[in-house]
Specification:
Blueprint (H helix, E strand, L loop, with lengths): L61 H21 L7 E2 L2 H10 L3 E7 L2 E10 L8 E7 L2 H5 L2 H8 L3 E3 L9 H27 L6 H5 L5 E3 L15 H15 L1 H5 L8 E5 L6 H12 L3 E5 L10 H15 L3 E6 L2 H4 L13 H15 L6 E7 L7 H4 L6 E4 L5 H11 L11 H6 L6 H17 L7 H13 L9 H20 L6 E5 L9 E4 L10 H22 L7 H16 L30 H28 L1 H14 L1 E3 H8 L31
Parallel strand pairs: 1-4, 2-5, 7-10, 7-11, 8-9, 9-10
Antiparallel strand pairs: 2-3, 3-4, 6-8, 12-13, 12-14
């Protein structure tokens, strides 16, 4: 095992990265499927798409706007330079060209201005030079010819008409004005039109256009998502169905004096289906539905966010009864006074203040409901959460085993399944997964089935898809025999400790096939969903996490970097036992966990003294040292079973649950659900423990 490729181990499928805390957001999760309307229409933008990103102030795209200006300039060029403006006269010499043409009777008429003479030939004449045949000419009379009488007699003898005005007038005044000024007038008109469009109905200029709300209006019948597409979160669905019923039958509630909730806040970890619930509500309520992300309100220009909030609520009031949905509310709803902005002049706070004003100001009889979703309700401003604003708070929990089976049934509606596939059994092997995870699992299974040429998705496709989702894709890494053997001992150590520790999660699979960034994996999962953890269970997880490192110590007498993830996991659990859950007799039931962003305890901060910090470190070290001692004794005593399991792993590389227990010589007894896995009265259920090692 190389130093730059640490090996880790996994022994649980529950989600999260820290014990007793909800898992961090996973950017790979995708929202639930929403079918388009039958006619293919999406949610039309209000105002014809005004204010969208990539639009010029006129409402058209910048590309089209540039093409329009280019066309106008091209028109100007053609009108001023290419349109004909009359034949250009040829400049000829007085003698001999002009005199010869007069004597030949080819000069029809002339006019003079000073010594400059212009005239017209009777027939086209090609004078010397590069001008070409022409009927018009100009020339200069010498002074002696003008003062003499011979020229006048010559002109009179050849019937040349002498005019007072030049016959070469060119374009008329009106034509000249139109050709010269029309393109300019067109350009001025275009820019005036742009300015008027940008100003809108007010005098705010471009700011008025920026102040338009970007919310999408979903008309009645334009979405086919309903509550039938929502499964596994029945409590949240029932709360929203009550609001939908109020919108459909308001008289039933008004007769009893009931008032519609002004706001409903959906909270829960990512992927649980908050946005799906909002879409289902839009499909069920049969009223106009305005959807916007909270981040769309914020701009660099101060006051734009508040203006967009006003515009959104004005549009909803006009369409009442209606629903306003604001996704990721925490983008504008953070608690004020954190020092991150400039007080009341901060754009985010101005936007929040406008939301508070609108929610408290509009008439509840209008039937406008504000629906919002967030992953972080704990950071929201208290003014948002008071009665009269968000009256109803709905927590969208992770689904239990039955809920996961229902979610799988929804996502496999359009997936052809092989007969005999038990979705309940698949759901039982996915503790901690939320709706987005299960949708991804179904998709991975379908992709594997297509890749393998199956006409229907088989159970093996689901099993392999689950391993890929949890553990990562297999890697083609060529390991030396020594590294491969050390990896086998490491994973066998994890597995054997899990098999022999009372109350530990059963071992589901062992593999020494590299996956993701790991060289091997030990997968453990509980028999049933756990909502609370006792001290023995947490200590058992620490023992299992130490199993791989201790196995290397017992067999080789040395250690490697392969236990990096194991050490991080067991340290988090041990520190949580001391600082969060009061499982240390020395520290006692005192919450001393750090609240700073880095998760580090600093002396003198958060009410933690230097002495308390030292005491915490000592207790964490004591818990880990005792666990290390017990694991060393356990593996030394069962060294023969460790060897058996390792050799079987080297032979077949992957062992499922039955084969693993058989190879280790451990009797697999059926386990009953631990009574402590259910929260007792008055207790707050703990979040799933962190997902141990990817290995």
């Amino acid at each position: 095992m190389s130093e730059d490729q640490p090996r880790k181990s996994a022994d649980d499928t529950s989600q999260g990265s820290r014990p007793g805390q909800a898992p961090p957001p996973d950017p790979s999760r995708t929202p639930w499927r929403v079918e388009p309307a039958p006619d293919g229409r999406g949610a039309p933008d209000r105002q014809g798409g005004k204010g969208k990103k990539g639009k010029s102030p006129t409402g058209m795209s910048w590309q089209r706007f540039g093409l329009l200006l280019l066309a106008l300039f091209t028109l100007n060029f053609f009108l001023t330079s290419l349109l004909p403006g009359g034949e250009r006269p040829a400049r000829i010499s007085y003698s001999p060209v002009f005199l010869n043409q007069v004597k030949a009777g080819n000069v029809k008429e002339i006019s003079s201005r000073g010594e400059t003479v212009s005239g017209v030939f009777n027939q086209k004449f090609d004078p010397p030079g590069k001008h070409g045949p022409t009927t018009k000419f100009t020339t200069e009379f010498p002074t002696f010819a003008v003062n003499g009488s011979s020229l006048a007699k010559l002109l009179q003898d050849n019937n040349v008409i002498v005019n007072a005005e030049s016959p070469n007038q060119g374009r008329g005044l009106l034509a000249t004005l139109l050709i010269s000024l029309l393109p300019t007038l067109l350009l001025i008109g275009v820019f005036v039109w742009i300015a008027r469009r940008a100003a809108g109905a007010g005098a705010g200029g471009l700011g008025a256009q920026f102040g338009r709300s970007k919310a999408k209006r979903v008309e009645i019948g334009s979405t086919r998502t309903t509550f039938n597409d929502v499964a596994g979160i029945e409590e949240a669905k029932e709360e929203l169905m009550e609001v939908v019923d109020f919108l459909r039958n308001p008289d039933k509630y008004k007769k009893l004096g009931a008032k519609i909730p002004r706001g409903v806040l959906l909270s829960g970890q990512p992927g649980t289906g908050k946005t799906l619930l909002a879409r289902a509500m839009a499909g069920e309520a049969e009223v106009p539905f305005f959807s916007a992300s909270a981040s769309e309100f914020i701009e660099m220009i101060v006051g734009v966010g508040a203006s967009r909030v006003r515009d959104l609520f004005d549009e909803a009031k006009k369409a009442a009864p209606a629903i306003i949905f604001i996704d990721e509310l925490d983008a504008i709803g953070r608690a004020r006074g954190g020092g991150g902005g400039l007080g009341g002049h901060d754009e985010r706070e101005q936007t929040l203040n406008q939301v508070l004003t609108e929610m408290d100001g509009f008439d509840p009889s209008l039937g406008v409901i504000v629906l919002a979703a967030t992953n972080r309700p704990e950071i929201l401003d208290s003014a948002l959460l008071r009665p009269g604003r968000f009256d109803r708070r709905v927590v969208v929990q992770s689904p239990d085993k039955v809920g996961r089976a229902q979610i799988l049934a929804v996502h496999t509606r359009s997936v052809p399944l092989e007969e005999g596939i038990d979705l309940a059994a698949i759901a039982a092997s996915t503790p901690g997964m939320v709706g987005a995870d299960l949708a991804n699992l179904v998709n991975e299974a379908a992709l594997l089935a297509a890749k393998r040429g199956h006409t229907r998705v088989q159970l093996a496709d689901f099993t392999d898809g689950l391993e890929k989702v949890i553990l990562g894709a297999e890697r083609r890494v060529v390991m030396s025999d020594s590294e491969r053997e050390r990896t086998a001992y490491h994973e066998a150590g994890h597995a054997l400790v899990g098999m022999l520790t009372e109350g530990a999660d059963p071992v589901r699979k062992i593999s020494i096939i590299p996956r993701g960034q790991a060289l091997g994996v030990t997968l453990s999962a509980p028999e049933a969903d756990r909502f609370n953890y006792d001290q023995a269970y947490l200590r058992g997880k620490i023992l299992v996490a130490l199993g791989g490192r201790v196995a290397e110590e017992v067999v080789y007498g040395t250690i490697t970097t392969g236990a990096e993830s194991d050490i991080q996991q067991l340290t988090n659990i041990a520190r949580g036992m001391v600082t969060r859950w009061g499982m240390s007799e020395v520290v006692g039931p005192i919450a001393v966990e750090a609240s700073n962003p880095n998760g580090m305890l600093l002396p003198g901060t958060d009410g933690v003294s230097q002495a308390t910090q030292q005491l915490i470190d000592q207790e964490v070290r004591r818990i880990v040292d005792e666990a290390h001692h017990d694991v060393t004794l356990l593996l030394t005593e069962h060294r023969e079973q460790l060897e058996q399991l390792t050799q079987e792993l080297l032979k077949v590389e992957t062992l499922d649950e039955t084969d693993a227990y058989l190879a280790a010589g451990v009797l697999r007894e059926p386990r009953e659900e631990n009574a402590s896995s259910q929260p007792t009265s008055g207790q707050k259920p703990s979040a799933p423990l962190g997902e141990p090692a990817e290995v």
